């Protein structure tokens, strides 16, 4: 629980990702939680558990490769576990809130649920932008472009690879 509290300020844009703890055990927990939530979301969208399983695995692999390549090109590959934890913890924190919103949206189709879903998506984008900005020490515009590239690569890339398999 202490490491959770250590990472939580990252979601409020208050913590430098380099100041976070290196914990392989926490990364494993983040990846398992990420897999469970993404599998749940994918399986509900595609109605094919096998396809969902493959796409979520590919999404995790592509995300880890993107983070690794980004850090390698920056010369900070020593911080891979820290940054992977930051990325996946940020996505997990947002997904913790997205699931009830999606259930509410499915049940009621209330307009407020659509707005909340858009807000959580924007928050996830801002978290990744913040992590990239602080990690690579670049300006906000460049980090926004890299963040958009991250999301396009991980989600659409995993989908495209899944279709090839």
What does the model show?
The longest helix is centred in the middle third of the chain and has 29 residues, at 80-108. Helix content is 82%, strand content 0%. The protein has six helices and no strands.
Which runs of at least 5 residues are low in confidence (pLDDT < 50)? none
Number of strands: 0
How would you sum up the major sheet? none
Beta content comes to under 5%
Cα(first) to Cα(last) distance is: 39 Å
Assembly type of the chains comes to: single chain
How does the SSE layout of this entry go?
Elements: H1 2-7, H2 24-46, H3 49-74, H4 80-108, H5 111-136, H6 140-164
Structure characteristics:
mainly alpha, 6 helices
Quick recap:
The chain is mostly helical and 165 residues long. It has helices at residues 2-7, 24-46, 49-74, 80-108, 111-136, 140-164.
């Amino acid at each position: 629980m202490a490491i959770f509290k250590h990472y939580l300020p990252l979601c409020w844009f208050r913590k430098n990702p380099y100041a976070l703890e290196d914990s392989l055990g926490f990364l494993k927990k983040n990846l398992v939680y990420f897999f469970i939530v993404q599998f749940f979301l994918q399986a509900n969208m595609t109605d094919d558990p096998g396809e969902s399983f493959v796409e979520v695995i590919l999404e995790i692999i592509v995300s880890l490769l993107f983070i690794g390549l980004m850090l390698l090109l920056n010369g900070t590959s020593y911080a891979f576990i820290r940054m992977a934890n930051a990325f996946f913890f940020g996505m997990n924190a947002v997904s913790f809130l997205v699931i009830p919103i999606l259930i509410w949206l499915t049940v009621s189709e209330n307009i407020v649920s659509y707005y909340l879903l858009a807000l959580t998506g924007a928050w996830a984008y801002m978290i990744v932008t913040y992590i990239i900005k602080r990690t690579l020490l670049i300006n906000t515009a460049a980090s926004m472009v890299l963040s958009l590239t991250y999301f396009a690569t991980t989600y659409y890339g995993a989908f495209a690879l899944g279709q090839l398999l």
